[in-house]
Amino acid sequence: MTVTANGPLPSRSYDVAVVGAGVVGCAIARELARHPNLRVALVEAQDDVGQGTSKANTAILHTGFDAVPGSLEARLVREGARQLTAYAGESGIPVEPVGALLVAWDEEQLAALPHLAEKAVRNEYADARIVEPPELYAREPHLGPGALGALHVPGESIVCPWTTTLAYATQAVRHGVDLHLNSRVEQASRQDGGHVLTTTRGTLRARYLVNAAGLHADTLDRLLGHHDFTVTPRRGQLIVFDKLARDLLRHILLPVPTALGKGVLVTPTVYGNLLLGPTAEDLDDKRATGSTAEGLALLREKGARVLPALLDEEITTVYAGLRAATEYDDYRITAHPGQAYVTVGGIRSTGLTASLAIAAHVTALLADTGLDLGPAVDLEPVRMPNLGEAFPRPYQRAELIAADPEYGTIVCHCERVTRGEIRDALASTVPPLGLDGLRRRTRARAGRCQGFYCGAAVRELFEGAGA
Amino acid sequence: MTGPPRDVDVLIVGAGPAGLAAAARLAAPGVARVEVLDREQQAGGVPRHCHHGGFGTWTHPLTGPAYARLLLGAAVRAGAVVRTGVTALDWAGPLALNTLGPHGLETIRAAAVVLATGARERPRAARLVSGTRPDGVYTTGELQQAVHLYRQRIGTRVVVVGAEDVSYAAADTVRAAGAELVAMVTELDRSQTTTARAQYARLRHRVPLLTDTTVTELLGHGRLSGVRVRHRDGRTVQLACDTVVFTGDFVPDHELARRGGLDLAPDTRGPAVDGTLHTSRPGVFAAGGVLHPGERAATATREGSQVATAVRELLEGPRSFHGKRPDLPQ
Ligand SMILES: Cc1cc2nc3c(=O)[nH]c(=O)nc-3n(C[C@H](O)[C@H](O)[C@H](O)COP(=O)(O)OP(=O)(O)OC[C@H]3O[C@@H](n4cnc5c(N)ncnc54)[C@H](O)[C@@H]3O)c2cc1C
Ligand SMILES: Cc1cc2nc3c(=O)[nH]c(=O)nc-3n(C[C@H](O)[C@H](O)[C@H](O)COP(=O)(O)OP(=O)(O)OC[C@H]3O[C@@H](n4cnc5c(N)ncnc54)[C@H](O)[C@@H]3O)c2cc1C
């Protein structure tokens, strides 16, 4: 099993290099790992998988009911949702099928609901139905006053985006994929019919190349001579509310979409918080993952309408993610057979849901492009540590604690993360190289105190482990 | 939960000044079974990591850890059982709590429960300070533990947000860590500590105090590179620093109170109590920081003693619980 974070990259050529270890790149690497004859490298600029947009989204496993019918995105979201739901079940990725309510607040929105229901059918989703205010308020007693009706979409679910990405990466690495972190691809050229990538850790050679660089997919595409699309980072700021707010909400509350986008939603998270967001701001800085006073004020204003009691609750944290929006309405997944190259661009706001289907699609494109995949094997299943509240956490499992008292020793009190879980994460297949990575693997320091109680103790465990 | 519930007379959640002071007053060997739980590995509560002075009395000033040892000693000598590394997770009944420790899960029932769970400082995001999410952002609690308990390195240039007592304690810790204090920043028009302390800090340590000033944004990717501050008159400047400490702005640790559905005080959102520190649930009391976030330790200690009197009255009175009258010292 190979995960590297420093030193020169291996000199031997790979069959396939996947650039970008977000949820999409990791899913592709995992899919390629089914083919034991292939030597695959997953190359990531940052010090962990899933450090880009994949760590900072709304964490909804969409049904695709509102996609553009007939688009590639619609198909991959639909298939991906099914695949990820099944995969989550066998891998221990927390998913909760809470369902969504698209709430209409005025006549125009109310009139739009039947059209959305029809669109859902065209997207092969038949379970959406309109609910009247009495049922709506019975379902959501804390909903703000004045709602006229809603479209109920029972299939919309919430999922843990961190565990999803890590599960893919873990399985890929266990099946022979080399994960190279801290390796930003800066130049790309072709030599002797192969790709030569110049990275911050030296040269990497591969016969086939997959560009899953997220926000930077357009830059890498240009290095290979394509000017097919431009990525415009579209920022989404989100507010995470205290777990004590969890009982205020049962479903995902979506606004009726407008021309300006999907709008601000309120949703539970699998960790037991409530999430309010995202904003949608077109920017030109691909590093602008900060929050702004205006953005947070806007979210609070919207939240006050939808779930007034929410604003009395403590805020646990705030974050922002950047969608890889392009000038197109669909994903930009393109094979370039002459170059032994596949671009996976424009995976804007549904990439988590669609990841497994994107991976299968890209693998098929690689085969069409001439890559001989060789025989396929079934992957050894992975069992990921559970971060979700709907499933037993280690601190709740008497048999586990009896066998190992480290699971009875809480370090992070707000999130009830035990010393056993931190130890396990540090020794895992794809270990964290920083405290943020440890947080995404365990939830340590992710709670309401943000480290007041446990910050130094968690750091001590991390640094003591020689990281 | 594993195993049958275990019974004690008084279960105190939190071994900080309030919980320990209550235990010292309530326990008496062979008479009342008083058990104090604390989820940390060491008893003492917040004073454990307050290595500066500021505790004890004028005549007997103490550091936080010395103060904590004193209170712990008194509770243990009185006969209270103080168990650390044990968390009260949630309620298992009106006067029963599910607990967790390395020994496993256990339900403990009591005739009276005292919530002495303390308060914490509101962290950066909860104050809606916008910007990036870099390393180097602390509360005083984390800073003190990092420096005094774990000897961790903090940054080299530090901005302290706040100018109350706890902020000056943070400043002391910054200096103890060998870092430079760039500024103390407060929205208020003057320091909230004693004039003497503020003067001393300004003259002896040349700490600039920026009043009428708000920290509006954190800057930097990876590590903090600075904070943007805005003066009441509208001017904004950037202070270069690699560490920022958010001090004060206390919130009660009221999770058990809320999960138990106890009435909350509208101002602090800690549990609401009557004059005898009794909460809205018969047999459940509260004392210390969870009621008065941000007050000094002496207040919590005093209230711990006070709650002991109320608990004893309840247990001795006619309305005893579990149909029995625990024998408590007169
Ligand atoms: C606010 C918001 C809400 C969202 N909500 C949802 C949702 O509810 N459900 C859903 O399904 N989707 C959602 N999405 C979309 C989803 O998060 C993305 O589609 C998905 O994360 C994209 O994954 P990715 O792997 O393509 O990109 P990324 O996660 O950005 O990964 C790309 C990786 O490539 C690396 N990289 C870039 N350039 C280079 C280089 N030159 N060399 C090496 N590595 C490089 C980056 O460091 C990064 O790790 C949301 C997105 C946002 C922003
Ligand atoms: C950084 C800082 C500096 C301070 N400096 C001073 C000073 O110099 N002088 C001064 O007089 N005061 C100071 N104070 C205030 C003083 O610390 C408090 O007034 C005092 O600690 C309150 O005591 P307490 O027992 O109510 O709560 P705490 O001391 O907070 O103790 C509460 C205890 O409850 C435990 N607990 C909470 N929930 C659970 C649970 N579910 N299960 C088990 N255990 C639980 C916690 O682990 C903690 O040990 C300072 C406060 C802070 C935050």
What does this structure look like?
The complex is a heterodimer of chains A (467) and B (330). Chain A is an alpha/beta fold. Chain A folds into three domains: 2-55 and 162-230 and 328-368, 3-Layer(bba) Sandwich (FAD/NAD(P)-binding domain), CATH 3.50.50.60; 100-154 and 232-325, 2-Layer Sandwich (D-Amino Acid Oxidase, Chain A, domain 2); 394-464, no CATH class. Chain A has helices spanning 23-32, 72-91, 107-122, 133-139, 161-174, 217-223, 293-306, 351-368, 398-403, 419-426, 435-442, 455-464; strands at residues 2-4, 14-19, 40-43, 60-61, 95-96, 100-104, 129-131, 149-153, 157-159, 178-180, 185-191, 194-199, 202-211, 232-241, 252-255, 265-268, 274-277, 281-282, 315-325, 332-336, 341-345, 410-412, 417-418. In chain A, a hairpin with a 5-residue loop joins strand 16 and strand 17. In chain A, helix 1 (23-32) crosses helix 8. The mean pLDDT of chain A is 97. Chain B has 330 residues and is of the alpha/beta class. Chain B folds into two domains: 6-120 and 250-321, FAD/NAD(P)-binding domain; 123-246, FAD/NAD(P)-binding domain, CATH 3.50.50. Helix content of chain B is 25%, strand content 29%. Chain B contains seven helices and 20 strands. Chain B has helices at residues 17-26, 64-78, 140-149, 165-176, 195-205, 255-259, 297-316; strands at residues 6-13, 34-38, 55-56, 61-62, 81-84, 87-93, 96-101, 104-115, 119-121, 130-131, 137-139, 157-161, 180-185, 209-210, 213-219, 226-231, 236-240, 243-246, 250-252, 284-286. The A-B interface holds A 240, 244, 287, 289-293, 295-296, 314-319, 395-396, 398, 401-402, 405-406, 408-410, 413, 416, 435, 448-453, 455-457, 459-460, 463 and B 1-2, 39-40, 85, 87, 89, 100-105, 120-126, 128, 130-133, 135, 138-139, 141-142, 145-146, 149-150, 152, 216-218, 221, 251, 255, 258-259. The complex binds flavin-adenine dinucleotide (2 copies).
